[in-house]
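Milestone M4 deliverable, item 7.
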Amino acid sequence: MNLTFTRRVFAARFASVLSTLGVTAAVLPNRAVAQTAGSQDGSIRKLDSEGKPGSEKDAIMPVVIHRGLIYVSGQGAHDTRDSKEWTIESHTSMVMDKIKKHLEIGGGTMDSILQLNVFLVKIEHWDGMHKVFSTYFLHGGPARTTVAVAALPGDSLVEINCIAALIGK
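Output delivered:
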């Protein structure tokens, strides 16, 4: 019989006893905080544009938080001005400001963006979009995909979505 009893074996057995007794959250407060925040456990938090929890009537939520990641749904400019006034630069600024706002609602920053998708109504807009886009990433940008699409909803020349890391507070 092997009598080797290491700290690892002790910790594993002790944790299983605590789990069985239901006192894990009391002994491990950091894990309990993460669970209530819905960031590291299996829960999913869905937030509207004001940071309030979504209801069953909401078909699309702009911010979803799950397992330490923030998902921001596609954001468009939805420009109400006359289309003669539209520029890719102004639309990109509008959309990037929305992305920034939604990341902050979810607990992230522009620097925490891991991956981002850009959809343009015309591939010729790439230079103008990229010029504005790059001003939002002073410490290097995220992985990015840019594609041209036939059309975008909501009178927008560009739509952007992203995935970001949740920043611990």
